[in-house]
Amino acid sequence: MSSHSPALEIDGLYAEKLAACLAKAEGNGTADEADFCRRYPDYEHTRHLDALRAAQYQRLDALKHVYLDYTGGGLYASSQVEQHHRLLAADVYGNPHSFNPTSLAATHLVEKTRETIHEYFHADPDEYRIIFTANASGALKLVGESYPFENRGQYMLTFDNHNSVNGIREFARLHGANVNYVPITLPDLRMDAAALREMLAQAIPGGNNLFAYPAQSNFSGVQHDLTWVVEARERGWDVLLDCAAYLPTNRFDLRECKPDFATLSFYKMFGYPTGIGALIVRRDKLKKLRRPWFAGGTVEIVSTLAPVFVRAEDEAAFEDGTVNYLSIPAVEIGLRHLLECGMDAIHSRVVALTGYLLDNMTVLRHSNGSPLVQIYGPTTSEGRGGTIAFNLLDERGEMFDVRLVEALANQAHISLRTGCFCNPGAGENAFHLTRQNVEECSVAAAPVTYERYVAALSATTGHTVTGAIRVSVGIVSNYADVSYFVRFLRSFLDLESPGLLD
Q1: Same domain, yes or no, for 209 and 153?
Q2: Cα–Cα distance, 183 to 198 (Å, whole number)
Q3: Is residue 96 part of a domain?
């Protein structure tokens, strides 16, 4: 499921209640923040991030944006853009696939960035290679199309995965490999450890077995145990770890956690540049991959007179055409920015703000005592990141259409996200949908559109099912952001859901 946010006619009652809640000063704001800091003392050690926000992210407050979509995309500091602009303005850079002065200048910057990525993740160059891609999805596709799936092979993945991981199953099935999903448990949406251990024991000796899971769920924020990487590899599995949602607010050290493949998007980490991701791959597993085609830059020689071509060595064989050589240097600038901020400080801030949100969201209740918020995933900060998926319920337990919530959030200058976030498995489990529900509604909604599918699901289940709402905090989120959002949520108290919107 994915969400569209059409222009909605917002009922005056909702708009009036929203305006009243946002205008209301909740006691003494300074005293409220002081109480927050007493409850989350580690937050005080992150105050330099407030100064950073004022100096380099000032557009947030100048434009009155409350940005709560860090899992969708990180935000860049003004200094990142300025440094990159100065770099580009100071020299002449040409296509790296040559040995002239401008080409060599570009090659130097690309390789310098590659070295910085090795250093940032403590990825020993003798053990790991860095392959530049367009994004995490491009890195995942690279693994999927090149992994030697076969009749004796297996592709195992968790229900909690991004669609770019789910999509690899089509490559696996094309080559006759078995595809199996590891169940997740309710209500926390964590992997079923017993089921996973049983499925890991089913690796085919001598076969090609690939296990994929996210370090952190982009749906619920659940952080799945990284020790599964070790156990899976010991049991004969190659491990693909999707790190896209995990890296923006957590340390990741490839000396301690050693997946065979790790995928990421740099804009998720520090906002700029977009269009650059990476596949970090163990050198021995890079040799195992077999690409179904070749392109410019990936070969040593090609003949059209004879069916002859020789692939390039190492990462060059996987970087199609010309890499994005003008944007790649901005990746090094972004990584240096994170190091200056301090990943421990970013992590501590996110833990504190997430804890505040969870504490406040779980106690919001209508006058009849029924809960306003239904959270999908853990309701404490333990074993989770700064991403929270939820729905709003009226006093009868009926969901508010997420499109109404998003429209009202837009009106309040809050950037959040609605839908299933390209993670249908987590959503289907969270909403207690069955295979029969999905199959019947897919037929009933034909020709399928999002709106028709949502209507069919709502009719089948008897409840409004339009997806979930997701908020996520990041590098320069602050107390003002989350307290404002809690006031936004309070505007729904004692209001009745209008049901599924047309």
Answers
A1: yes
A2: 12
A3: no
Inside any domain, residue 87? no
Arithmetic mean of pLDDT over the chain:
92
Question: How far apart are the C-alpha atoms of 85 and 87, rounded to whole Å?
Answer: 5
Given the residues 243, 257, 422, 441, the one annotated as active site:
422
Q: Which residues contact 354 (CB under 8 A, 6 or more apart)?
A: 221, 381, 384, 385, 386, 388, 473
Share of the chain above pLDDT 90, in %: 76
From residue 236, alpha-carbon distances to 212, 239, 262, 273 in Å are 13, 9, 18, 37
Please confirm whether the linkage preceding 187 is cis (ω < 30° from 0): yes
Q: Model confidence over 403-412: pLDDT tens digits?
A: 999 999 999 9
The pLDDT value given to residue 7: 46
Structural domain contains residue 7 = no
One domain for residues 228 and 142 = yes
Q: Does the pLDDT of residue 428 top 80, yes or no?
A: yes
252-267 per-position pLDDT tens digit: 999 999 999 999 999 9
> Is 167 in the same domain as 297?
yes
Tokens read off for 215: 């370090």
Q: Which of 10-14, 227-231, 319-323 has the highest mean pLDDT?
A: 227-231
Q: What's the pLDDT at 10?
A: 62
Structure tokens given for 61: 């407050």
Q: Report how far apart, in Å, the C-alpha atoms of 6 and of each of 10, 392, 403, 456 are.
A: 12, 19, 8, 19
Quote the pLDDT of residue 317.
Answer: 86
pLDDT > 80? residue 453: yes
Q: Write the pLDDT tens digit of every residue in 65-103.
A: 999 999 999 999 999 999 999 999 999 999 998 999 999
Structure tokens at 50: 């407030």
- Res 26: pLDDT: 54
Q: What is the amino acid identity at position 107?
A: T
- Cβ burial of 198 (10 Å; 0-12, 13-18, 19+) is exposed
Q: Residue 259: which domain range? A: 123-322+331-339
Residues 382 and 293 placed together within one structural domain of the fold: no
Task: Tell me, yes or no, whether 144 and 281 share the same domain.
Answer: yes
Interhelix angle 29-39/343-361, rounded to 10 degrees, is 110
Q: How many domains does the chain have?
A: 2
Q: Tell whether 299 and 414 lie within a shared domain.
A: no
> Any catalytic annotation for residue 441?
no
CATH number, residue 271: 3.40.640.10
> Domain check: are 176 and 310 in the same one?
yes
**CATH number, domain containing residue 372:** 3.90.1150.10
Of all helices (H) and strands (E), which one includes residue 341?
Answer: helix 328-341
CA atoms within 13 A on the CB side of 498: 14
In a domain, 498, yes or no: no
- Output the pTM of the full model: 0.93
Going by C-alpha positions, the residue among 318, 325, 314, 315 that lies closest to residue 275 is 325
Does one domain contain both 482 and 371? yes
